[in-house]
Specification:
40% helix
């Protein structure tokens, strides 16, 4: 539940400090901290808020020393929160993504691209990315969309419907929720067997022979004979 704007931060900690450091009445502290007077009395008696460290409202800018002195002199005075020096704007709740009218006809193509290239994405993620409805996604998935015959998959980032960062975040989030595939299942990343990744030992006990047989060994005579044939006929010697 949100704290009212006229309630100090950490009301109980503030009440502990006011009880320990001021001569304010229980009613004044209770009204300022939005507590019951009996609860403030219990704090003063050590029966409540044990272990809670007092929070100085003057240091946090919630009260001024003049305001406290004024309340001490007048028991009927009620403490008022000081105006904050910096006002933080309220966070706006993010609504459905707005798609410009000129881009709305591209959304079915983008949905088709996402369904084909990222089947791990849930409908809610696709709705967030391109600003569509679950009904439209279902129609495109089942090929019952009114324009299904003319749809062509197109990257939503290229179309300007979303950013690459948002797409990557949704894909990463969807990948975390997918079960880990066991070895042997389609799409599972596995290492190659030792027989395929490591060459066998040669007769000297070293790697790198590549499993050559005796027939595959190099023949020096054949190599030199081939080189001689490439040079052409040798010139005849001069007769004496």
């Amino acid at each position: 539940m949100a704290t009212p704007t006229n309630t100090p931060l950490m009301p109980k900690a503030t009440a502990v400090w006011l009880v320990e450091n001021t001569a304010l009445s229980f009613d004044q502290i209770a009204a300022f901290c939005r507590l019951h007077p009996l609860e403030v009395k219990a704090i003063a008696d050590g029966e409540a808020a044990q272990g809670i460290k007092g929070l100085d409202p003057i240091m946090t800018g919630q009260l001024t020393r003049d305001e406290i002195d004024k309340a001490v002199k007048d028991p009927a005075h009620r403490l008022k929160l000081a105006d904050p020096k910096v006002r933080v704007p309220e966070a706006k709740r993010r609504g459905p993504r707005y798609t410009p009218v000129s881009r709305r006809h591209d959304r079915p193509n983008a949905i088709l691209w996402l369904l084909r290239n990222h089947p791990e994405l849930k409908d809610a993620a696709i709705m967030r990315l391109v600003g569509t409805t679950k009904t439209t996604i279902q129609q495109i998935r089942e090929r019952t969309h009114w324009n299904a015959a003319n749809l062509a998959p197109m990257d939503p980032v290229t179309l300007g419907l979303t950013s690459q960062l948002e797409l990557d975040l949704e894909v990463e989030k969807a990948a975390k929720g997918m079960p880990v595939r066991e070895a042997g299942e389609p799409g599972a990343a596995t290492l190659l067997p030792v027989e395929e990744s490591v060459r066998p030992l040669d007769e000297h006990g070293a790697y790198g022979s590549g499993g050559r047989t005796q027939e595959d060994e190099l023949d020096a005579d054949k190599i030199f004979a081939k080189l001689k044939s490439l040079k052409g006929p040798e010139p005849a010697e001069d007769e004496e």
